[in-house]
Amino acid sequence: MIRLKKTNSISIKLALLFSGIFITLLLILGAILYGVFTNLFIDYIKQDLLVRGNNHAKVLQEHFNQETIEHVIRMETGVTTKVLITDLNQKILSSSVQPNQDIDKHLLDKGTKLIGGYVLESDWKQHEYIITVSPIGGSEGYVYMYYPSQILRDTVIVLNVLMIIASLGIILLAFALIGIMSKKLTLPLLIMKEATNKIALGKYQQRIPVRGNDEIAQLGQSIQSLGEQLQYYENSRNDFLAAVSHELRTPLTYIKGYSDILSKGMYKNDDEQKEYIKIINKEAKRISILVNDLFELSKLQVGKFELEKEWTDIHTIIRKVMTNLKPEVTKKGLQLIAKLEDVPKVFIDIQRMEQVIYNLIENAVKYTNHGEITISSYLETEFTLIKISDTGIGIPAADLPKIWDRFYRVDQSRARKTGGTGLGLYVVKKIIEFHNGEITVESKENQGSIFTIFIKNGERT
User: Which of 15, 39, 230, 384 could disulfide-pair with 182, CB 3.0 to 4.6 Å?
Assistant: First the structure.
């Protein structure tokens, strides 16, 4: 389980980004709401003033006398709105508000006639009142209605204070939620960062606890899988180096020991001398095979593995390999059987295909202690099949998918006895794939193995 040592700044960056976006949207929304509320409230005030003024004008139109005028004035006394009544020449007949310069300034010119009421002044920021005027009948006079602008200004101030307080509360709450969400969003990334740092230090096996199947979860799974692959290759590399060291040390020891004996003349007779030379030659051949495997691996890895193909009889290659391996087969008391049917020539790299068949038959000899090894060839639809079967110790089912991996060896103790670096089958598979062919394996423990090569006929592969 990964444990974080310190917090990465990505969560802070995300929080700042989201907060900036949120505050910007909040300010825009606040400005919109402020404008809408203010306009709606002012419109309501103006419409209410017009309605009240028109109603008073209707009453006065029916009875335009002092008593009715006083009645209207009393209705607007002690309330927020105020009323002023004039005749047609703008002479003030009565008023519930003390006239001042601003009021006098907004009176209509003498002799002005109106069809209906309208708003005289709506600028509540600059003037003392919002003012409307309604005509009384045809030419009797006018009813002026006043609403104090100070009330609107006070209301707007209260509204601003409430909006600021609400905004601060929302912003603080948003910061907290954004902080929690950003940490939650970035936590898997921080875990992955810590994991990759540990992988860079060679601690490949990392457990990344991610949930779901989104992109972040897939990234975590990929990093975890990468670590497992690196661990696998690290183990394989260590095993490979140990195998190479063992494979080189043994033949070099033999070569050095017997060459010292020969150089000092410490042998009894010619037969013994020939035997020592034979051993030196055999061990040198082991080193040559190892170096060749490493050389082939390096070419595969850098993409310089090239084939020189030509039409050839596959049986010629098979018989040559069988002849070369006959002494080892005889030495182990095994039978080497060939069942070769008529097959057409194939377009292959002769040397590489010989390497493939040699490797497979040599492996069969190496892991077979009694019984027989059979090499057969036959046609199957458009393919030429080459099958190498043995009665050896077989391969465990769990190891079958892995035998084609580089450096992989089924059993370390068995590998130490038989030798090998785990590169042979990897190179074999690659050579067959470069021929656009296929190789398969069937095996049962203590019963033997069957390797089958598929080569396409009748075309340049």
Answer: 15
Phi and psi at residue 211, to the nearest 5°: -120, 160
> Which residues have a Cβ under 8 Å from the Cβ of 276 and sit 6 or more positions away?
258, 261, 262, 267
The more confidently predicted of residues 353 and 181 is 353
Residue 260: CB atoms within 10 Å: 10
Q: Is 422 helix (H, G, I), strand (E, B) or coil?
A: coil
Element (H, E) at 99: none
In sequence order, the 6+-apart residues with CB closer than 8 A to the CB of 249 are none
Element (H, E) at 108: none
List residues bridging with 453 in a β-sheet: 386, 439
**Residue holding tokens 């769990």?**
398
Residue with the two structure tokens 């009645």 = 71
Q: Which two tokens stand for residue 31?
A: 């400005």
The three-state secondary structure class of 349 is strand
Helix (H, G, I), strand (E, B) or coil at 144: strand
**Cα–Cα separations (whole angstroms), residue 216 to 96, 178, 184, 206, 231:** 73, 19, 12, 16, 23
Domains of the chain as residue ranges with CATH: 12-155 (3.30.450), 215-300 (1.10.287.130), 306-456 (3.30.565.10)
Amino acid at 95: S
Residues 351-406 pLDDT 10s: 889 989 998 999 999 999 999 999 999 998 889 999 999 999 998 888 888 888 76
Mean pLDDT of 112-129: 85
User: What pLDDT does residue 302 have?
Assistant: 61
Q: Which residues pair with 97 in a beta bridge?
A: none
Phi first, then psi: give them for residue 85, nearest 5 degrees: -120, 130
Least confident range from 208-217, 220-229, 269-278: namely 208-217
Q: Which two three-digit tokens encode residue 337?
A: 């059987």
Contacts 24+ apart (CB under 8 A), 214-220: 216/188, 216/189, 217/188, 219/192, 220/188, 220/191, 220/192
pLDDT digits (tens, 9 = 90+) for 405-423: 766 666 544 444 445 556 6
Left if phi > 0, otherwise alpha if psi is -120 to 50, otherwise beta: which for 337? beta
